[in-house]
Amino acid sequence: MDRVMWIQRSGARYPGGEGAGIETRHAFSFSGHYDPDNVRFGSLVACNEERLAPGAGFAEHPHRDMEIVTWVVEGELTHEDSTGARTVVRPGDVQRLSAGSGVRHTERNAGAEPLTFVQMWLVPGPGAATDPAYEVVRGIADGTPYALERTEAVLHVRRLVDGERTALPDAPWVYAHAVRGAVRIDGQTLTPGDAARISAAEGLEARAEGPAELLIWEMHAEPGYG
């Protein structure tokens, strides 16, 4: 398969969000917006940018058969779920909620400052464990890979200084989301909220144009059902 790269700009995301003080931008078909040509990329089926004003949040709601990974950009995210987890997630932390056969949770901004976070949903493989699970990795180090045990996907967090280069994984599907600053990939510059979807990625790198933060998904499988 030949390499293909498609850039989705921040302004092209689908608007969403319900309730006062909530602003959402969806990268894929989600909730009330359906696009049959944009339902997933590899095992990734959602990449939502969420902005919550102080006091705003999502009431308790269910999930199942999904791996949900959250990255806080600014502010503090208060998370509670039916596994018994009660945590505050801050910038630099990786949060993972494995919904398994079913879990309920709430997310809110209990702080005094605005909250911005990126939430990414991935479909686990067939035969994955069915019990819900929760984990927070505090202050994940730059360049440390975070593998999802229930799917063939790895998250790479890169914080780059001006001019620094980082190799992108060689993988069937690579999704690179710019969190801060600007990065250049294969002749295209990504700014905050932009994402590159790369099929058959091989031999590529990202170069920072000023200080930058980049989330990179390395994926080796598409969703399998049954």
Automatic annotation (TrEMBL):
This is Pirin. It holds the Pfam family Pirin. It comes from Streptomyces violaceusniger. Gene3D superfamilies: Jelly Rolls (2.60.120.10). CDD domains: cupin_Yhhw_N (cd02910). Residues 159-219 form the Quercetin 2,3-dioxygenase C-terminal cupin domain. Residues 20-122 form the Pirin N-terminal domain. PANTHER family: QUERCETIN 2,3-DIOXYGENASE. InterPro entries: Pirin, Pirin_N_dom, Quercetinase_C, RmlC-like_jellyroll, RmlC_Cupin_sf. It comes from the Bacteria. Belongs to the pirin family.
